TrEMBL record:
Gene name tied to this protein: rnpA
Keywords, alphabetical: Endonuclease, Hydrolase, Nuclease, RNA-binding, tRNA processing
Family: Belongs to the RnpA family.
PROSITE patterns: RIBONUCLEASE_P
EC category name: hydrolase
GO BP: any one term: tRNA 5'-leader removal
Lineage top rank: taxon: Bacteria
Coiled-coil residue spans: none
InterPro entries: Ribosomal_Su5_D2-typ_SF (IPR020568), Ribsml_uS5_D2-typ_fold_subgr (IPR014721), RNase_P (IPR000100), RNase_P_CS (IPR020539)
Function: RNaseP catalyzes the removal of the 5'-leader sequence from pre-tRNA to produce the mature 5'-terminus. It can also cleave other RNA substrates such as 4.5S RNA. The protein component plays an auxiliary but essential role in vivo by binding to the 5'-leader sequence and broadening the substrate specificity of the ribozyme.
EC numbers: 3.1.26.5
Name listed for the protein in its UniProt record: Ribonuclease P protein component
PANTHER family according to UniProt: RIBONUCLEASE P PROTEIN COMPONENT
Organism, scientific name: Candidatus Falkowbacteria bacterium CG1_02_41_21
């Protein structure tokens, strides 16, 4: 889990990222990014009912994505809001493939520190 301060929780925060954020889409997920004027990053993960109707499956996907973010967080630039959108093809992928897709999306957005 992320700390409460590192989570996007309000609809207006998600809307702001979707309206004005830069985006990068991979085969199994997409990432949208916008500066937030804070000293830390905030993340949100969206796994819709189209991915799977079972909440346990959707939560497992969220946990995997959050773990991949947590491992890379020291390498990321600070002061951004990021929303990860998941596509149904993620069900056929293992953790390593999910992590690689997330890193590719972050790299395309230039979200890593130099």
């Amino acid at each position: 889990m992320f700390n409460r301060s590192n989570r996007l929780s309000k609809n207006k925060d998600f809307d702001k990222v979707f309206q004005a954020g830069r985006s990068s889409y991979q085969e199994i997920l997409g990432a949208k990014l916008i500066p937030n004027n804070l000293d830390y990053n905030r993340f949100g993960v969206l796994v819709g009912l189209k991915v799977n109707k079972k909440a346990t499956v959707r939560n497992k996907i969220k946990r995997r994505i959050k773990m991949a973010i947590r491992l890379d967080e020291p390498l990321l630039k600070k002061g951004y809001d990021c929303v990860i959108v998941v596509f149904p093809l993620i069900l056929a992928k293992n953790y390593e493939e999910i992590k690689a897709a997330l890193r590719a999306a972050f790299k395309k957005l230039n979200f890593y520190q130099n």
